[in-house]
Predict the structure of Helix-turn-helix transcriptional regulator.
Amino acid sequence: MDRDQLADFLRRRREALRPEDVGLVAGPRRRTAGLRREEVAALASMSTDYLTRLEQRRGPQPSEQMLASLARGLRLSLDERDHLFRLAGHTPPSRIHRTSHVSPALMRVLDRLDTPALVISDIGETLAQNELGVALLGDHSLHTGSRRFFAYRWFAEPVERDAYTADYHDHHGRTLVAGLRTALARDPADDTVAAIVAELLAASPEFAALWAEHEVSECVAPRRKRIVHPTIGVIEVDCQVLVAENEAQRLLVYTATPGSEDHDRLRLLSVVGRQRFDVGAAESAPTQRG
């Protein structure tokens, strides 16, 4: 625990806040720079005396629960919260908080894009797509059960790979496995990831072999890929990734170089739409898992 740096950080963050930042009225007689100690203490649900001792370098080591309350009270960003925990001698908590509710910031970007895009979770579940994303990759909202996760479809239903050229398969398979291992290492009690892994170990020798290699990395799609569209043909795209602040969601945006043939093919998606996915879907779709 670094008492001097912790005290300085708390004081500076308190002085940087303004009453209006936390819903308080400044009043005509306020002389304190930023918020008063008693105001931050109230916001953090702690005693003013405790906060005073921390700022004066004479307090005990705060608990993780106390630090979390201070982070909320001081309206810290995730980077600032992690810094606070380290100064106090604690390991910062995981930023991952998985939810099917798409980050409003990512949705605002998705709604304004005129190129294929989708929002996925950190373990490869599609949470939202724009119309061009559906036209390029199909409607992922139709998947249920384990099929909601791209890694499951990739290994348990190899027909999923037909949408990508063969040179992409090995690299992406390894990326998916390494991403699942990272998620499970981050939280061994994550029942969702554990269930996916267990199913794939039983269903796919290829997955089992890759899992045994213990590769670890974030599940992020390769930056360049060649997608096979049955109507338009092969489209080479760049995949840009925007990660949400809590790191549990990411926005994948597919683009092509302006003026190129691939760019023209992407533009055709607005004409083709999702028709190729709707025709005969009931005949070709595998059995849904509940």
About this structure: Residues 276-290 have pLDDT under 50 and may be disordered.
